[in-house]
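Researcher: Go.
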Amino acid sequence: MKRYLSPDSCPQVHDLVALAVDHASARDYERSIDLHGRALDILLEMESRPGLAEGKALLRNRRAELFVALGRFQQALGELDRVLAIRGDLKDPGLVIRALVALSQIHAIYGEYGEALASLENARALAEALGEPLEQARVLASLGALQARMGEHHSGGESLLRVLEILPESVQDSESALLRASALTQLGLAAFRERQSELARERYQQSLEILERWGPESELEAETWRLMGVLWSVRGRFRKALRHLRKALQMYLLNRMPLGRARVYNSLGQTCLEMGRLDDALLFLEKARWICEELGADAELAAIYGKLGAVHLNREDYLQAVELHRRDVAVCRRFGNSRALAFAIRNLGLSLRARGDLSEARRCLEEALGTFLSLQDRALAMQVHLDLAEVWLDWGRLPEAEESLQRSRDELHPDSPDSDKARIWLLTGTLQRLRQRWSEAQEAYLEALRILTEAGPTGALARVRYELGQVHAETQDHDQAVYHLHECLVLARQLGATHLARKAMRMLDRLDEVEVVNLLLEELEASQESGAEQIPTVSP
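Model: Structure:
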């Protein structure tokens, strides 16, 4: 404020602004908004003088930033519109640049990517004309993040790397350091999307080292911990993932940022889904959906609908899964983000396959595959090849299934997640089982079992146990069949995988009726030790 209006000319305004800044630092955003508003009211009543327009714009920008932190986007838009309405009167283009950057962030949250990009291109032109490195970096950091979110990874990466060139490691002011950290976090996310997980981890760690000094417990640090948690979740390191996500949630709660909390709940839901903990996944995802619907954050909602659909898919509620995935597709079609749309269409294909609509499922999956190939996203193309292999296996069309499996192997990268490698072995085992090549099937399933056992209890691990039980039953290896089905049933019940538990129970009952009673006794003894009395039941 001193840059525009001297303290002698309006001492009360300067006192109010100083107090407002203190309250914002203490995360008392409501009080800070009120104090900034009182200072603004004083300026609005003052007669025209040099610096007055800039002082008003500064206060409105600050109020807008605080409204965004609280998720009150419409009120933020009102303040930003007023700044842009007087842009012709402002002698400091930096105030307009800040307003345009904030405006683009709100448009992106609403899923209005075209409007967000237009605001940033406008801001970029102003920053280049101004020639101020800090303002150029501010715009490029937001532009790179938006481009990556829109699926334009190459352009986004170039914008973010340019930020690092403008702001070297030697920067010694808070604002520059935080912009550099933001660029590193976004570069980590770009590397993660390209399945370069080690590079992603390095970028996140570099950002966190900066934030430890310049932005401890900030929104950016919370988001970086969240992304680090997602990285470890995909790599099957669930304990580490949950610790990082817990840290992110604690920081977002401390900062009172509802959209950040929703993003963490979304990530927790995905992690629980990958672990096979469906009830926990549903709890977190419903919390994320409620917050985003309250905020009108459609861009976040699309991803949440997709994950909720996956939960209902795993719970065998196929009608609800298809409905949620169709909603995901409808929201994504509005955004113009071909990558996000391909994700949504792929998820719809998966739910249609589970419902038995194999022809429509194949059509959706092939559409998604075509998009991922056009984007040169080999990692996701590999996963869709596996999805198609499952469709062909359901159809009994084994040559087509083998072809899809081979294509997935061709796309496999050394840095691919273990879950992808295990899935290839699992489906290879199923292909060989259907061909009655028992030895080859068992070998493939055991390799999948080896990989998945290291990741801890998951739905995929339970499924491999079931498949091994089938193979050993076919080869008359009674003891091994009972062992794997027993392990499958215990794990499936633990994870709430009711359909798989029923299948395992029926097969186990056919093989060894006494073993079913043994299992019930084990559960009774375990429940008595924990103080419970009820045994989980699954009707055979």
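Model: The CA atoms of residues 113 and 448 lie 41 Å apart.
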